[in-house]
Specification:
The protein is mostly helical. The protein is built from 29 helices and 2 strands. The chain has helices at 4-15, 23-33, 40-52, 56-64, 71-83, 87-100, 107-114, 121-138, 144-157, 160-169, 175-192, 197-210, 221-234, 237-250, 256-268, 272-280, 287-299, 303-315, 322-335, 338-351, 358-370, 374-383, 390-403, 406-419, 424-437, 440-447, 453-456, 486-503, 513-518; strands at residues 465-469, 472-476. Strands 1-2 form a two-stranded antiparallel sheet. A hairpin with a 2-residue loop joins strand 1 (465-469) and strand 2 (472-476). The protein starts with a helix and ends with a helix.
C-alpha cells in the first residue's frame, strides 16, 4: 500500500509542470491500486496533471470518476477546458456545477472562464457579458484578478467603453491592469476613428505615475512598448522623447521590445539620428529591430539608406521576413529604384520562399508601372490571382494613369468598382486616371448615372496633416482657415514667396534638359 502523503507529493510535483505528457498516466494506475482513487485531493492533483499535459479526455475521466467533488476540482476542470479553447465545455460545466452541487464559483472560476480563447471575438464578448453579470451578482467584481480578467477580455474584443468602465471601477490596480487598459486606449483610434486614443493612453500613464488611485504599481517594459507604439501612430515626438528618458531612468531601455518600439517611434517622427542611435545600443538585434530600421528609412523616403540597412542585415546572417521585404520594396517603389525593387522581390519569392502578400504585390505592380511595363503588371494580376485586392488594383490603375493606357485602365476600373462600389476614393482615382489619359467619354460615364460619382464623393472626408507644437498635435487640412493662427501662417508664406521672387532671376534658371531629367 502506497502512503497517501507520498502519492500526494508525487502528483503535485507532476502537476507543477511535467515535461513527459505520459508521466501522470503512469501514476494513475498506482493511485487506483493503492485504493485512493476516490480521494478528492489526489483526484484533483491528477486531473490538474492531465490538464497541464494536454490530456483533456483523461482529465475529464478522473473528474467523472470522483464521487465527492469540491470547488477546487470543478475549477481545475473548467480551467482545463478554457486553456484548451473549449469555451462551450467550460460554460456547460459551470452550469452543471451550479445546478448539481449548488456551488456558485469563486474568483478562480471566473478568471479561468474570462481568459478562455474564444473562436471569435463576438462569441467571446457575448459570453464575457454573461460572465460579467454573474460576477456582479456574486460580488466578485472587487476581486483584483477577476476585474483584471474582465478588463483583458473587453480589451481583446476591442470594446473600449466597457473596458474603461471596468478599469475605472477597480478599487485596486496592478501593472497587469494598466498594461491591459493602455493598449486599448491606443486602439480607440481605430474604434472611434479619432486621433485622441493615443493621448488617452498617455494620460493613463501619467495617472499611473502620479498614483492618482493610490496604487503602488510601476510601469514595466510592456507598458512602455505599448505607449511608444502610440507615439509612433500619432507622430508624437515630444512624448516619445519623454518616454525614452523614463526608460533610461528606470533602466528599461535594455529590453528588446522597448528598444524596437523606440526605433519605430523615432523613425515615424522623422528622428532618424535618434532611431539609429537606439538601434546601435541593441547588442543582438532581432528581425523586428532590423525591419523597424528599414521601415523607418523607407517611411521618410531614404531609399538608399533602407537598402543599406537591409543588405547589412543579410550580411549579419539574419533571415528577413515579409515585413522586412515590404520595407525595402516600399523604399524602392517610392524612390523609383526599379531594378533594385525587382531584385528584392525575386529574392523574397525564390531564395527565401516567402509568399507575397497584397502589399508586396502592390509594390511590384507600382515598380513595373514606373518601368513602363504595364502589360507585365497586368500579367502579374492575372497569374497570381490577386484581382480581388483593392490595394493591388489601385496600384495598377495608378500605373495605367501614369502611362496613359486607357484599355487596361478600364479593366482596372471595372474591377475596382465591382469590389468596392461604395468607396468614394475609388471614383476619384478612376476619374483622375481617365482625365490624365484624355478619355473624356469614359470620364463622363463615371460622373453620370448609373455611377453617380457626384453622389458617391459628396461626403468625402478630406485628407489632413498634423504637426506637434509644444507637446500638442495640431491637425489641419488644405486652406484651413479655422486653424489657430492660420492668418499668421498665411502671412509668413506670402513673405517667403515674396523673398524667393526677389532672389529669382533668369540667371538662376537651369536650362539643361539632361540635368533637369537627372535631378
Amino acid at each position: 500500500m502506497w502512503p497517501r502523503g507520498f502519492l500526494s507529493r508525487l502528483l503535485l510535483r507532476v502537476s507543477a509542470g511535467a515535461t513527459d505528457r505520459h508521466a501522470c498516466a503512469r501514476i494513475h494506475p498506482v493511485l487506483v491500486k493503492s485504493g485512493h482513487a476516490s480521494d478528492t485531493r489526489l483526484a484533483t492533483a491528477l486531473a490538474d496533471a492531465y490538464a497541464k499535459s494536454g490530456l483533456v479526455t483523461r482529465a475529464r475521466r478522473v473528474f467523472d470518476e470522483t464521487p465527492r467533488r469540491d470547488l477546487v476540482l470543478w475549477n481545475v476542470m473548467i480551467s482545463c477546458y478554457s486553456s484548451h479553447g473549449l469555451l462551450n465545455h467550460s460554460w456547460a460545466l459551470l452550469a452543471s456545477m451550479r445546478r448539481s452541487s449548488g456551488l456558485s464559483g469563486d474568483g478562480f472560476t471566473f478568471s479561468a472562464l474570462l481568459s478562455a480563447r474564444a473562436p471569435s471575438s463576438s462569441c467571446s464578448h457575448n459570453l464575457g457579458l454573461l460572465a460579467h453579470g454573474l460576477v456582479l451578482r456574486l460580488g466578485l467584481h472587487l476581486d483584483l484578478v477577476v476585474a483584471t480578467a474582465l478588463l483583458d477580455m473587453y480589451a481583446k474584443c476591442g470594446w473600449v467603453p466597457d473596458a474603461r468602465r471596468v478599469f475605472d471601477a477597480m478599487l485596486l490596480r496592478n501593472s497587469v491592469s494598466w498594461n491591459a487598459i493602455i493598449p486599448i486606449s491606443r486602439n480607440a483610434i481605430v474604434c472611434y476613428g479619432q486621433h485622441g486614443g493615443g493621448k488617452d493612453a498617455l494620460q493613463l500613464f501619467v495617472s499611473m505615475l502620479r498614483n492618482d488611485d493610490g496604487c503602488c504599481c510601476r510601469a514595466d517594459e510592456l507598458t512602455l512598448a505599448s505607449l511608444l507604439s502610440s507615439c509612433a501612430n500619432m507622430a508624437a515626438a515630444y512624448e516619445a522623447t519623454q518616454l525614452h528618458a523614463y526608460a533610461l531612468k528606470r533602466g528599461l531601455q535594455g529590453y528588446l521590445q522597448v528598444a524596437n518600439a523606440l526605433i519605430m517611434a523615432y523613425g515615424k517622427n522623422g528622428f532618424l539620428l535618434q532611431a539609429t542611435q537606439t538601434f546601435a545600443t541593441i547588442h543582438e538585434p532581432d528581425i523586428v529591430s532590423w525591419s523597424s530600421m528599414v521601415s523607418s528609412f523607407a517611411y521618410l523616403g531614404r531609399a538608399k539608406s533602407a537598402i543599406h540597412v537591409f543588405e547589412r542585415m543579410l550580411r549579419q546572417g539574419v533571415r528577413p521576413d515579409g515585413i522586412a521585404f515590404l520595407g525595402v520594396l516600399s523604399a524602392c517603389s517610392h524612390a523609383g529604384l526599379i531594378q533594385d525593387g525587382l531584385k528584392y522581390f525575386l529574392l523574397m519569392t525564390t531564395d527565401y520562399q516567402i509568399d507575397p502578400c497584397p502589399q508586396h504585390l502592390a509594390c511590384l505592380v507600382d515598380l513595373l508601372g514606373r518601368a513602363g511595363r504595364v502589360r507585365d503588371a497586368y500579367n502579374v494580376l492575372l497569374n497570381i490571382s490577386c484581382q480581388t485586392n483593392t490595394d493591388v488594383i489601385g496600384a495598377f490603375l495608378a500605373a495605367c494613369k501614369a502611362r496613359g493606357n486607357i484599355e487596361l485602365a478600364k479593366w482596372a476600373a471595372d474591377r475596382l468598382l465591382g469590389l468596392e462600389p461604395n468607396e468614394s476614393a475609388n471614383y476619384l482615382l478612376i476619374s483622375n486616371a481617365y482625365a490624365a489619359a484624355g478619355a473624356w467619354t469614359e470620364l463622363a460615364k463615371v460622373r453620370t448615372p448609373p455611377l453617380h460619382m457626384r453622389d458617391m464623393c459628396g461626403n468625402k472626408v478630406p485628407g489632413c496633416s498634423w504637426i506637434e507644437v509644444v507637446g500638442k498635435v495640431q491637425t489641419f487640412v488644405s486652406n484651413d482657415i479655422l486653424l489657430q493662427r492660420s492668418t499668421e501662417m498665411q502671412h509668413m508664406m506670402d513673405l517667403i514667396v515674396t523673398f524667393l521672387e526677389k532672389e529669382f532671376n533668369e540667371g538662376t534658371l537651369c536650362k539643361d534638359p539632361d540635368l533637369i531629367s537627372e535631378w
